[in-house]
Amino acid sequence: MFKRVRIGRLFFGSFAAFIAVLLLISSWIGYSLTSRELASNTASYQQDLLNELNKRLVTQLNSVEQMSLAAYRNIETIAFDPLESDLFERNRRKVDLISLLASITYSTTMVQSIYLYIERPFSTDAQGPLRVYDLQKVKEEAWFPSIQNNDFAWIEERTIPTNSGPIPVISFARKLYNNSGIYYGMLLLNVKSSEIQNLIRGETEGRSRLLVDASGRKIATIGNPDLQESELENIRLLKEKSGSIHLTSKPQGDSLLVWSKSPSNWTLIEMTPWNTIIHGSIRLALILLTVGLSAIFVASFVTFFISRQFTTPIKLLVAFMGKLPDRGFVADLPRDYTNEFGNLFNGYRKQMERIEELLESLKAQHKRQREAEIKALQAMINPHFLYNTLDQLNWLAIDSGQDKISKILSLMGKMFRIGLSNGETLIPIADEITHVECYLQIQQIRWGDRLTFTISIDEAAKELYIPRLTLQPFIENAIIHGFHGRKTGNIRVSVHLLNQDIRFQIEDNGVGLRPDWDQPKARKTGGYGMRNVKERMEAYFGPPYGIRITSTEGTGTEVTILLPQIRNKEEVEERYDVENTHY
User: Fold this and answer.
1) Are 218 and 130 found together in one domain?
2) What SUPFAM superfamilies does the database record attribute to this sequence (predicted)?
């Protein structure tokens, strides 16, 4: 009873270990689920925040665009002309133009300065917010390609010189046209980058955000949002106004990308390192992992302590299992165990007794197997002996000048090789036709010009397969029996593809077949090859496939063999391996 209790404790220890493993799995699942949930909540929160910031940002950017449009219309109204003949009128309009553009910078803190590009620039106050440049200079600016094909455009962040030092700005450029639609100048409003960045930043700190225009160009950034051009292009092509993506291909690590699009296609993007989002998940996973490892340690200690009570019988059993099955050694196994180990010892004892019986049986089987292998090796020697003998006879015939005998021996060697085919049941139709042709050439040597034959075959049929030695028995019958007593003979062999089938036809002009040709004979007088082929076809293929023979006494015989097209011999070869056919 006490030993059964110890078995129960072992089970309990194993169960404790199983629970510890489950805790490890739970830690991983908990980490995965919480990571997804945190990423989802973070993305949702950031989308709401970006939507609100985008609204404010678009409002301010639209106000800059409206300022530019109002200035454009007022400039046209002032109609400053540097070629004006009236000096007083020209100065008055110049002062009005300077006052107009300066008032825009004074009306808002966003605009730092204004650049005006015209054909005949005039000097301005170096301390003032207005700069006037030659229109030809605009083509030399790095930002010119951004507006070259547009009437107005936002220009990405750049640095301009001022009296207080270089200042980063984001500019809005607008082309100027007169009433006749002729382009005569360029107006550039330089917006302080810090103002745009404050709008992008909102009330949050330490974020990486990026402002992108409708064409996918980076206009302003805060933090360090490292995005590739291809990634920006993918976001630009998305139809969703807001969304999030988990980027896994960043060199600096995974990140969460959240974006918000305005109706005017301004896109505000925020990048958050993935490790920042899942920091809480990692902490929770570490806690669960610590608990799991502690449980494993405790369970392992308890299991090890309890398992020591079982090591003696187990080691004893393992020692006996490692010995060779010598007769009678199982009698040394203990018999005083009444628990599960007693059942194991008794079962092992019976098993070893059974193994002794099997060993005796295996010895006898091994002896029979060796005898069979020797016979198989002898059987393998026979074809090679036959090939070598024919080859030697062929050389003797050549040395003796017996060309016909040499040719017959050569054709016979080729026939034997195809006929045996290394034990293959199915051979290519091309080989079967070669076998038939060799046989006919041998007979033609004996008959001379009195025997003629023709063979026609579809090229596509040559690669298909056929049971070996299917056609030769019918040709042999035509020559031996069909042409018996005749001075001449003609044989026609044709192979044609019919849909998924293939048809073989063998025709001769001999005396025809007897009505009882397919009946077994009382004596082995030959002629059973055709019956054998017919029985094989019926057994392996069945209707509608098989052999049809039509014969007219005195005029000849026609044999038609219809078979399916066999392209993969491995699929059907097992059906033939069970039977050895001899001719």
Assistant:
1) no
2) ATPase domain of HSP90 chaperone/DNA topoisomerase II/histidine kinase
> Given 189, 218, 243, which residue is the final one in a domain?
189
> What's the CA gap between 197 and 53, in Å, rounded?
11
Cα separation of 275 and 385, whole Å?
78
Q: Looking at the structure, tell me whether residues 69 and 151 fall in a common domain.
A: yes
Closest CA to 413 of 430, 391, 441: 391
Structure-block tokens of residue 252: 């600096």
Q: Name which of 538, 541, 573 is nearest 427 in CA terms.
A: 573
- Distance, in Å, from the CA atom of 44 to the CA atom of 42, rounded to the nearest integer, reads 5
Share of the chain above pLDDT 90, in %: 12
CA angle 344, 346, 351 (to 5 degrees): 90
Task: Tell me, rounded to whole angstroms, the distance of Cα 284 from its chain centroid.
Answer: 37
Structure tokens given for 167: 């200042």
Residues 454 and 552 in one domain: yes
**Is the same domain home to 41 and 62?**
yes
Residues 366 and 509 in one domain: no
543 and 479 in a single domain? The answer is yes
Torsional sign, CA 38, 41, 47, 49: negative
Quick one: CA torsion of 108, 111, 117, 123, rounded to 10 degrees? 70
400 in a structural domain: no
Torsion angle (degrees, nearest 10) of CA 38, 39, 40, 45: 90
Q: Does residue 392 lie in a domain region?
A: no
The CA distance from 476 to 486, in Å, is: 15
Residue 542 falls within a domain, yes or no?
A: yes
Do 97 and 122 share a structural domain?
A: yes
Rounded distance, CA 150 to CA 214, Å? 13
Q: Is the whole-model pTM more than 0.70?
A: no
Give DSSP secondary structure letters for 471-530: SHHHHHHIIIIITTT-S-EEEEEEEEEETTEEEEEEEE-SS---TTTTSPPSS--S--HH
- Angle of helix 279-307 versus helix 2-78 axis, rounded to 10: 170
Tokens of 63: 């106000």
The kind and range of the H/E element at 428 are strand 426-428
Whole-number Å distance between alpha carbons of 413 and 388: 9
Do 185 and 206 belong together in one domain?
no
- The DSSP-derived string for 150-186 is SSEEEEEEEEE--TTS-EEEEEEEEEEE-TT--EEEE
Which among 162, 189, 216 is the end of a domain? 189
Q: Can you tell me which residue has the tokens 């009382």?
A: 522
Best CA proximity match to 426, nearest among 535, 546, 564, 528: 564
pLDDT digits (tens, 9 = 90+) for 175-207: 999 888 889 899 999 998 888 888 888 887 878
Q: Which amino acid is at 123?
A: S
In a domain, residue 402? The reply is: no
pLDDT tens, residue by residue, 95-134: 888 888 888 888 888 888 999 999 888 888 878 888 899 9
